Amino acid sequence: MGREVLVLNAGSSSMKYQLLDMDWHERLAVGALERIGEREGRLEHRNGDAAPHEVTAAFPDHEHALEAILATFRDAGPDLDSVELTAVGHRVVHGGTLFAQPTLLDDDVLKQIRDLNPLAPLHNPANVTGIEVARRAFPQVPHVAVFDTAFHQSLPPAAHTYAVPRAWREQYAVRRYGFHGTSHQYVARRAAALLGKAPQDTNLIVLHLGNGASACAIEAGRSVETSMGTTPLQGLVMGTRSGDVDPALPAYLGRAAGLDAQQVESALNHGSGLLALAGSNDLRDIHRAAQGGDGDAELALDVYCHSIRKYVGAYYAVLGHVDAIVFTAGVGENDPVIRTRSLQGLARLGIAVDPQRNQSAERGERFVSPEGCEVPVLVVPTDEEIEIARQTLETVDASRLGPQRAADTGAPADGSART
Ligand code: ADP
User: Fold this and answer.
1) d(CA 92, CA 109)
2) Ligand 1: nearest atom to the Cα of 209
3) Angstrom distance (rounded) from CA 2 to CA 83
4) Separation of CA 10 and ligand 1 centre (Å)
5) Nearest atom in ligand 1 to 239's CA
6) What is the pLDDT of residue 402?
């Protein structure tokens, strides 16, 4: 039995989790509990390759949700009482400028994360609740927070500063933060390995295209530019989010349509993007509609791919030299049409997609550009849970080194590194 890490991703009405054996690189259990607080919730749990174990019940709050998850581990295995958990890793969406690294959780750190709630009101409060109930359930085990924003704390000031009034920047922490950092970091490391290069010698443009979507320019293994901003609304066109729009829209729609700022924000987050253009946020539906001659679906594909292409061009300019373009997440991994259309016309930049490789039924990490292409195009399936577990273990190990050895390795003595 190797070292086991429980990864928890607590949302406002859901709890997703994985139990990973990090020595044997094995996913021991995967589960998701949905509809916390509703009359009927659902938990689906898989022990290895076994058939899913389902529980339908009311889960009034996160405390009950975690209790149900632990009971399911007892009923369907693997039995958490008989494995010695090395650590629990928690996904936390917003780390502000405080957290540039995964951080060992204690009461002070938890308070600091809570203080960031105004920056991510939909996500951080749920993440904090998840941490609180898990710390009560596993009081003897170290808990680590892994932040979606942390990887982008390396953005230079030119890239993270918004040209807005000083008071907004200084008093209200308005700047670009960027999200999906755990995914970009994982994918960048795997892409460098696929290219046979060290991460610190690799420049990449990573396109994380899921329901949420973001682009990241990675220079020598570090994030130097990313498309999401203070919130995850900025940047690429997404499933239900608009991505970039004129920032004067809320005021204009206030005057013209009588909408208040919250209504505009909600519509831009939940009623925009592909959903607004084509009536679905799932690209599989949109392709089907486009093939049937639906003009809205065709426009949605054009708008979506145009937005990606624009970011690729911009990030090429930011990096100067690009070793590869990397696609990941639900769309990036599975949609050859989007990959081709968004990179169309970029041959002058050395970027090309090979039709056969791109269409191949092969899954997993792969090249989809022609042999010898100047800027290879890769598909790398993302795995945020593995990355959270890896960073969790590293943080716990660094905290156990003690002050002297931690100083020697450059790791913070208490496992945290707050900037
Ligand atoms: P999330 O951001 O919720 O984690 P995912 O990364 O799982 O989302 O991506 C979900 C999206 O991926 C779906 O909405 C759909 O548009 C797209 N997708 C999934 N499978 C396919 C596929 N086979 N072909 C095209 N698009 C797909």
Assistant:
1) 12
2) 6
3) 9
4) 20
5) 14
6) 67
CB 150 within 8 A of CB 99: yes
The residues facing 143 across adjacent strands are 88
Token pair, residue 376, equals 């290879």
Residues having CB closer than 6 A to ligand 1 are 210-212, 239, 281-284, 329-331, 334-335
pLDDT at site 401: 80
* Helix, strand or coil, per DSSP, at residue 142: coil
Give the pLDDT confidence of 137-160 residue by residue, as tens digits: 999 999 999 999 999 999 999 999
For residues 5 and 13, what is the distance between their CA atoms, to the nearest angstrom? 23
User: What mean pLDDT do residues 87-101 have?
Assistant: 97
Q: What is the mean pLDDT of residues 383-399?
A: 96
Place of tokens 């008989």: 82
Q: Phi, psi at residue 204, to the nearest 5°?
A: -135, 155
What residues are paired with 376 via a beta bridge?
none
CA–CA gap between residue 376 and residue 32 (Å, rounded): 36
Beta carbons within 8 Å of 41's beta carbon, 6+ residues apart: 33, 34, 35, 56, 57, 58, 59, 65
Residue 415: its pLDDT value, please? Answer: 38
Is 201 considered catalytic here?
no
For residues 90 and 143, the answer to whether their CB atoms sit within 8 Å is: yes
Name the active-site residue from 23, 106, 108, 148: 148
Question: Structural domains in the chain?
Answer: 4-147 (3.30.420.40), 197-379 (3.30.420.40)
Ligand 1 centroid distance, CA of 394 (Å): 30
**In whole angstroms, how far apart are CA 348 and each of 310, 321, 344, 371?**
15, 14, 11, 17
Q: What angle do CA 96, 100, 101 make, to 5 degrees?
A: 130
**Is the confidence at residue 240, as pLDDT, over 90?**
yes
Q: So what's the pLDDT on residue 403?
A: 58
Say yes or no to pLDDT of 246 above 90: yes
Separation CA 166–CA 145 (nearest Å) = 30
Q: Which amino acid is at 80?
A: L
Q: Is 145 helix (H, G, I), strand (E, B) or coil?
A: strand
- CA of 274, closest atom in ligand 1: 16
Distance (angstroms) between ligand 1 centre and the Cα of 131 equals 28
Q: Is the pLDDT score of 84 beyond 50?
A: yes
pTM: 0.94
